[in-house]
Structures are given as structure tokens and as C-alpha cells.
């Protein structure tokens, strides 16, 4: 019986995951289409709301389809209370689970991740702080960018 369930559930889950990822890519593409600055200017208005609401909902749905149910206990700190949000140990894709309930904060990511098909567009819409492994000043530049965003009085999303 469990083998039969697996044979049925696995393809259904895979199809649902593919559909959710394509929807996330579509919404990320719309939100960033013709946006000036490409990461140097924060998303505002409908673009930012679209990313925060639709991608948050799609991310929650994606993890639910994968078998995870996220339940938040307590109160999530607002952007004004905590401009920098730390999720540790940052060792797997499970760190993304925390992004949905926290309103899709900006993340710190390798610059190479931005060129990945589908995921790169979704990642770009979150306006990440890019870290270049080839740049010797990358660590200093990353700290400066995080500090700039944290002190922006809410113009940038939380940095995770």
C-alpha cells in the first residue's frame, strides 16, 4: 500500500512543485520587469507587495507540497525592530523555509546563483546582497551593503 501511495504521490508532488516554481518565476519576472537599478534600487509599491505576498504564499505552498508545515510561535520581529534577520547555520535549502513567514526578506547569496535558470530570477526579485568569491574585497563590500540596507529606515526589506 505505501509503495502504491509513493508511486502516485511522487509524480503528483513533482508536478505541483514544477507548477509552483514556474508561477514563482512568472511573478518574480513581472515584479522585476523594467525595474531601474537591478538590485541597486529597492523595489517599491506594487512590486514589493507582489514579491512579499505572492512569493511568500507560493513558498509556503511549495514546502507544504514537499511535506513541511511551518508554524510560527510568538511574534515575528518587524523590519523596524530587526532590520537584519539571521537564520543559521545556513547549510541547506531548509533555510528558505523561514523566508515565507518572515515576508520574503533579502538574503545574502553567491553572485553565481543569480545566473541559474528560474531560481536566479526568483532570487533576483528578493534583491539579495551578492557575494563574489573571486573579489578579494567581497567580504568588506558585503558588510557595507548589509549595513547600508539595515540603516535605510525600511526602504530595503529585512536582510537574512
Write the layout of secondary structure elements.
Elements: H1 2-32, H2 45-65, E1 108-110, H3 119-125, E2 129-131, H4 138-150
Parallel strand pairs: 1-2
GO molecular function: 1-acylglycerophosphocholine O-acyltransferase activity; lysophosphatidic acid acyltransferase activity
Transmembrane segments: 7-30
Keywords: Acyltransferase, Lipid metabolism, Membrane, Transferase, Transmembrane, Transmembrane helix
Structural description of this entry:
With 160 residues, the chain is mainly α. The protein has one domain (1-151). The chain is 45% helix and 4% strand. It contains four helices and two strands, in the order H-H-E-H-E-H. Strands 1-2 form a two-stranded parallel ribbon. The protein is globular, with a radius of gyration of 17 Å.
Order of helices and strands: HHEHEH
Strand order of the largest sheet: 1-2
Number of domains: 1
Helix content: 40-55%
Q: Report the count of strand segments.
A: 2
State the end-to-end CA separation.
42 Å
User: Largest sheet, if any?
Assistant: 2 strands, parallel
> What is the residue-averaged pLDDT?
84
The radius of gyration is: 17 Å
Percent of residues in beta strands? under 5%
- Secondary structure tally, helices: 4
Would you identify the regions where 5 or more consecutive residues have pLDDT less than 50?
A: none
Overall structural class, as computed from helix and strand content, comes to mainly alpha
What general outline do the C-alpha atoms trace?
globular
Transmembrane segments: 7-30
GO biological process, one term: lipid metabolic process
Subcellular location: Membrane
GO molecular function, one term: lysophosphatidic acid acyltransferase activity
